[in-house]
Amino acid sequence: MDFDRVEQNLRASFRVVAAHRSGGELRELPGVSIASAGVTFQMFNCAFLSCPVSGELELARRIAQAGVHFQSRRLDWAYWVCDGWLEGAWKRNARRIFQQHGLRHSVDLPGMEANAILPPRRRLPEIEVRRVGDDSTRDAFCAIGSLCFNVPLPWFREVFDNDGVWNSFESWVGYVDEEPVSTAAVVAGGGTLGVYNVATVPAHQQRGYAEAVMRHALEDAKRRHGIERTILQSTPAGHHLYERMGYRTVTSISVYSC
Questions:
Q1: What is the distance between the alpha carbons of residues 251 and 254, in angstroms, rounded to a whole number?
Q2: End-to-end CA gap in the chain
Q3: Residue-wise burial string across 141-169, b where 16 or more C-beta atoms lie within 10 A, e elsewhere
Q4: List of domains in the chain
């Protein structure tokens, strides 16, 4: 299955966060994986399908199963759904089924994979890239993420408020003249390196900074983990860049949230 590495690494990235927070929780239910950070930001209180779904009634059961978990804990939450798990023509009705269970469709993200990253097509700009490890780099990473992903800063900081998260969610900040302008993170899991939180502050976009930070992060992770294959979930703005870097779309990730 082409999609399975994307799906496995996506789950691994959220498990990293949930496993290292005091309010986090990991559960395996029949056909459903739970990775809940126990935070205000509902996108990090997650449910995932963990095996194929053959019909509408089965999907409804798995949605309800996850719903019981989060409702009993009074948490807002999100269901991250890899299209590869939905089998048959009925899957065109998936959005309606989620809506019937109180989950609105938030976004569709192309799941992309590259066996190896291609060389840059242009000369990348000079940028100093620092591994997140102290209060200054942590603050910079969270501030850029908050701004670029339109998430309240306290929510973003709450997700990343634990040393254990930073140790496994390998994060980087790029600086230009000591100003933090771009971020990227890498999570090893499912036999791949997953790329997350690629962002550049609006005033410095379209200059190649995100690509430079991303390449630096991947080269470091490749050296330490011995893994070259990489995956990511693309935004519309980054899709063409990732294709130029050697990524191809292998699945789609739909996100539903309450």
A1: 10
A2: 30
A3: bbbbbbebeebeeebbbbbbbbeebbebb
A4: 4-110 (no CATH), 128-250 (3.40.630.30)
User: Which residue matches tokens 């989620």?
Assistant: 98
Is the pLDDT reported for residue 1 higher than 80? no
3-state secondary structure of 202: helix
Cross-strand bridge partners of residue 230: 114, 193
Tokens linked to 53: 């779904």
Amino acid at 97: I
Instruction: Give the separation between CA 128 and CA 131, rounded to whole angstroms.
Output: 10
Report the C-alpha gap between 152 and 187 in whole angstroms.
Answer: 23
pLDDT in tens, 17-74: 999 998 999 999 999 999 999 999 999 999 999 999 999 999 999 999 999 999 999 9
Residue 71 CB partners (closer than 8 Å, separation 6+): none
* 155 three-state secondary structure: helix
Three-class SS of residue 6? Answer: helix
Give the phi and the psi of residue 168 in degrees, each rounded to 5.
-105, -30
Would you state the structure tokens that stand for residue 204, as one six-digit string? 């410095």
Of 8, 11, 40, whose CA–CA distance to 27 is shortest?
11
Instruction: Please state the pTM of the whole predicted model.
Output: 0.94
Q: Is the Cβ–Cβ distance between 210 and 204 less than 8 Å?
A: no
